[in-house]
Specification:
Strand order of the largest sheet: 1-2
Distance between the termini: 48 Å
Number of helices: 19
Number of domains: 2
Largest sheet: 2 strands, parallel
Structural class: mainly alpha
Number of strands: 2
Length: about 450
């Protein structure tokens, strides 16, 4: 009986840890305040209808990311506490969808795979906090990537199971899912565009029947992607960035593209995407030519999507690390998909010591989480102190407020890491957004640049 109880306890560990990961993600969301663009709330938005009208105006005057920006403004309207819950649910779905695209079957997903993907993302995603905790950033990257992975799931299922199809109502509904997936984010859309192109080319070559959901989904995606790319506001924004001299825009076209190609390739390497793709190619070559194992065709599609996502950024004047999340996701899926096709069992020494190995990994993860948590909670506490000070000054009638130096964000898991805080220039957009949000005339940091006394 004791042996049986001990076995059950060990079997329950991954489930307990998986629930703990989800709860931890919620806690980190809770301790992440509104930052940067989150304070740039347009005046007069009081309903969903107002958001739709504003997004149409933005589509004409600034950019085509209407779906992502709709999410962001909706959650700012609904409130940060509600967003914390919604974002935790979406992140959990995001990880589960990653697992599905690796295993190809929902039934093959287990808590160990769930924990492995979470750990992989935690240690290697270069802008973890901006992608997953920042309200504005998560809506643009996490939420749209989740929609894309959800959209691609039936295509993966159809490829693996030739008799799989959606019924008529779901096939028609899939058109709107396709629109959302296409109308997501530029390099994300480019990645899916190349994946779908390869998918349909191979179906035509192999003379496979194309079902209704594949037609409606692809048609919806193309419409959404066209709305994203062809937005008049994209050209307005590009002109503004050009005037500011961003993205080598002052060079001749060919020189500019060559410089961006080099920049993108360096980021490809620095963000671990190239390393993961090379590892996938190494194992794929071994699998195909040494073990004579036929590789699932979708593995190539994922790799193509990863490459398309990164090199489509050559056309972008700005290259923030957070924009490369989709590259990392498709790279991880490619590697996981290849490794999942191996039939080689784990060495006996690994099997015998699996709990020791897992414990060492968890210990490393524990210290990393503690370090990140210290910075995230410290930023939250400083923001709360700052808000209290702003409100107290406003009560005194002081509408030109000076605050301490920017809050130190030293860990990439913090949402504020790499983003702007209150600066010297009261006319900088970071400052004007915060001032307008709190009903001030202006806000800037102290001339003396008085530092925060500690992280806590």
């Amino acid at each position: 009986m004791e042996t049986q109880n001990r076995f059950n306890f060990f079997e329950s560990i991954p489930w307990i840890l998986s629930v703990g990961v989800i709860l931890l993600f919620f806690v980190l969301n809770f301790f992440t305040p509104l930052i940067a663009d989150d304070y740039n709330v347009p005046i007069g938005i009081n309903s969903v209808a107002d958001i739709v009208k504003y997004q149409y105006n933005q589509w004409l005057t600034w950019g085509g990311r209407c779906v992502a920006q709709f999410f962001a403004q909706f959650w700012l309207l609904a409130g940060k506490p509600v967003f914390n819950i919604a974002n935790t649910i979406v992140y959990t779905l995001f990880v589960l969808l990653t697992c599905f695209h690796i295993t190809g079957n929902w039934r093959k997903i287990n808590p160990w795979i769930f924990l492995a993907i979470n750990t992989f993302y935690w240690f290697l995603v270069p802008a973890w906090g901006q992608n997953f905790l920042w309200l504005g950033g998560s809506c643009v990257y996490l939420w749209t990537t989740t929609i894309v992975l959800f959209f691609l799931a039936p295509f993966k299922k159809r490829h693996d199971e030739k008799n799989y199809k959606l019924n008529m109502p779901l096939s028609l509904l899939f058109f709107f899912i396709g629109v959302l997936a296409g109308w997501s984010q530029e390099n994300t859309g480019a990645a899916v565009l190349f994946l779908l192109a390869a998918y349909f080319v191979m179906k035509i070559i192999h003379k496979e029947r194309i079902t209704l959901f594949e037609i409606t989904g692809a048609a919806g995606f193309l419409i959404g992607f066209a709305l994203l790319i062809a937005a008049p506001g994209n050209y307005v924004r590009a002109d503004v960035i050009k005037e500011m001299g961003g993205g080598h825009s002052g060079d001749a076209l060919l020189i500019m593209l060559l410089k961006r190609f080099v920049d993108v390739t360096l980021i490809f390497f620095r963000t671990h995407g190239l390393t993961i793709i090379v590892a996938a190619a190494f194992f794929g070559f071994d699998l195909r030519y040494h073990q004579k194992h036929r590789i699932n065709l979708f593995s190539y599609f994922y790799a193509l999507a990863a490459l398309a996502s990164v090199y489509s950024m050559v056309l972008s004047p700005t290259l923030p690390d957070r924009a490369f999340l989709i590259l990392f996701v498709f790279s991880v899926i490619t590697l996981g998909n290849i490794l999942g096709q191996y039939d080689i069992p784990l060495p006996a020494i690994v099997v015998r010591n699996k709990y020791i190995i897992v414990s060492l990994l968890l210990l490393s993860l524990f210290f990393s989480v503690i370090s990140a948590g210290k910075n995230i909670v410290g930023i939250y506490l400083k923001w709360q102190n700052r808000i209290e000070y702003i409100l107290s000054e406003k009560e005194k009638g002081n509408l030109d407020v000076e605050v301490k130096a920017p809050i130190p964000a030293i860990d990439r898991h913090a949402a504020l890491y790499g983003l702007g805080d209150v600066l010297d220039d009261k006319d900088d957009w970071h400052n004007t957004s915060i001032a307008e949000y709190f009903g001030l005339r202006s806000i800037k940091r102290l001339d003396s640049n008085e530092p925060w006394e500690s992280l806590w």
